[in-house]
Amino acid sequence: MPPLQITGSANANLLGLPWEIPLEHWPTEHIAALPRGISRHVVRFVKLDGRVIAVKETNPSIAHREFTLLKEIQHLGAPSVTPLAVVTGRVSPEGEVLEAALVTEHLQFSLPYRALFSQALREETVTRFLDALAVLLVRLHLIGFYWGDVSLSNALFRRDATEFAAYVVDAETGDIHPELTVGQRDYDLELARTNIVGELFDLEAQGRLDEALDPIDLADRLVARYEELWKALTKSATFTSNIPLEVANRVRELNDMGFDVGELDMRKTDDGNALVIRPKIVDAGHHARRLMRLTGLDVQENQARRLLNDLDEYKAFQANPEDDEGYVAHEWLLQVFEPAVRAVPREFRKKLEPAQVFHELLEHRWYLAQGAGHDVPMAVATASYVKHILPARPDEQSVLGVSLAEMTAELPALTAEIEARGNVDEAFVGDNTHGWGSIGEPEPETKEVTRRSTVVPPPARPKIGDREV
User: Fold this and answer.
1) Would you state the CATH architecture of domain 5-108?
2) Are the C-beta atoms of residues 274 and 268 closer than 8 Å to each other?
3) C-alpha to C-alpha distance for 41 and 33, rounded to whole angstroms
4) Which CATH class for the 111-234 domain?
5) Which residues are registered as beta bridge partners of 282?
6) Are 355 and 299 in contact (CB under 8 A)?
7) Contact at 8 Å (CB) between 159 and 352?
8) What is the pLDDT of residues 71-122, one digit of tens each?
9) Is residue 343 a contact partner of residue 381, using CB atoms and an 8 Å limit?
């Protein structure tokens, strides 16, 4: 019988976990109280070295295959959970051979779809949620990944400004090809439609889907969104004049949608009087990469778009116009972004990731400015947001949806831990907004003073045709 073997991770502390015990019976001191989606396998979130990992039991060949696929997906730039290790050679004290385990990093601030549907969501929110899955599927197909089991259960979702971003969490049925055929894409899309209809009908039966929403209609919208986005990213265009400008406009259009164009396929028409142009390599994350280059912040695409808007406003209204863009970005990071993020009390820092907090803070500042009729200082907006908005937000790193106890009902020993989370200290113990609390809320005034564009509504999302991205 082979000995215990851990492949992939350099963390020796993995050896200290109770691999000789079936995963469903692991002691609660190892278990992290986090909500899980539905899985055909036993899955547990496990505490290790101050962080959380996900452990899934499956057979050895599937574990190794999925580990490799997840690494390839990440290498190709598509969003997925990060694979850490495969554990094989597990044997119980009684000599029973146990299943292998796939270990992945827990995706912080991620939401299983059932947590998102823990209360009736507005139709607009559900549409954005499904849009995220459509965007993920397009990104996977662009890199040649055939998923083979597209569903809500096999993805995780993170807030991305006013949108959601979807991540692959289960890839065991997938496969990587140099390029997908039309038939492979269509079959993946039909599987997505079938699985999502079933999952939404299940939510409807449990009373967790708004009665006004039709599961079949929602699934059809996902298919339409996928086809619309795929066409926009891969369509050919024929130009007969001013070709350099037309090419630049086409690239800018894709950039505005959040995609970079790595290569263009350009060829002359048969009569030689026009040029046919088609994107050959399209890579998501245009705004995220620009923000990373300027500031070092690693955030979601729509969050990056929002932060860059604020950075551009800072450059226009407060920075020296002669300063280099990189210097202005560093100044904005030190004087605007970091002070706002540091103002969040420690006990609230698990609610939302910093970039999402900053996005919501900018939205809150805009509403305050609307009410006051003039620009609102960042310190005032931050103090107001921290005291009146953030405490009511759900803890998206550890407690999602209606009830953590409900989601972990098979682990009754966690009850004390769950209850303890509710007995938080006084909300502003350790509040490092310091004296900001003494600054009153802005009162409406007739005088208009506009230093920055906080009195302008947040920028509209880019469109494809008549639909917002």
Assistant:
1) 2-Layer Sandwich (3.30)
2) yes
3) 18
4) mainly alpha
5) 261
6) yes
7) yes
8) 999 998 888 999 999 999 999 999 899 999 999 998 887 777 776 665 556 6
9) no
Which helix (H) or strand (E) segment holds residue 159: the answer is strand 155-160
Residue 348 DSSP label: G
Residue with tokens 């385990």: 101
Residues 275, 279: Cα–Cα separation, whole Å: 13
Q: Count CB neighbours of 369 within 10 A.
A: 20
Encoded tokens for 233:
């990213």
Cβ–Cβ under 8 Å, residues 95 and 181: no
pTM tops 0.70, yes or no:
no
List the structure tokens of 218. Answer: 């929602």
Single-letter residue type at 367: Y
Measure the CA–CA gap between 232 and 244, rounded to whole angstroms: 20
**In this structure, what token pair is assigned to residue 403?**
């009830």
Phi/psi of residue 357, nearest 5 degrees: -60, -45
The first and second tokens of residue 288, run together, are 């995220």
What three-state secondary structure class fits 448?
Answer: coil
Distances (CA, A) of 436 to 343, 355, 385, 431, 439: 10, 21, 11, 10, 5
Q: Which residues of 34-69 are buried (b: 16+ CB within 10 A; e: fewer)?
A: bbebeeebbbbbbebeeebbbbbbbebebbbbbbeb
Nearest CA among 49, 46, 68, 47 for reference residue 57: 46
Contact criterion met (CB below 8 Å) for 414 and 33: yes
CA distance linking residue 273 with residue 256, whole number of Å? 29
Kindly report the number of other CB atoms within 10 A of residue 443's CB atom: 8
Reading the block at residue 74, the tokens are: 């990440």
User: What residues does each domain of the chain span?
Assistant: 5-108, 111-234, 237-284, 343-463
Q: What separation in angstroms does the CA of 420 have from each of 22, 33, 184, 417? A: 28, 12, 49, 5
For 459, the token pair is: 């920028």
| pLDDT tens-digit map of 17-54 | 999 999 989 988 888 766 555 667 888 889 888 788 99
**Of the candidates 202, 206, 130, which has an alpha carbon nearest to the alpha carbon of residue 164?**
130
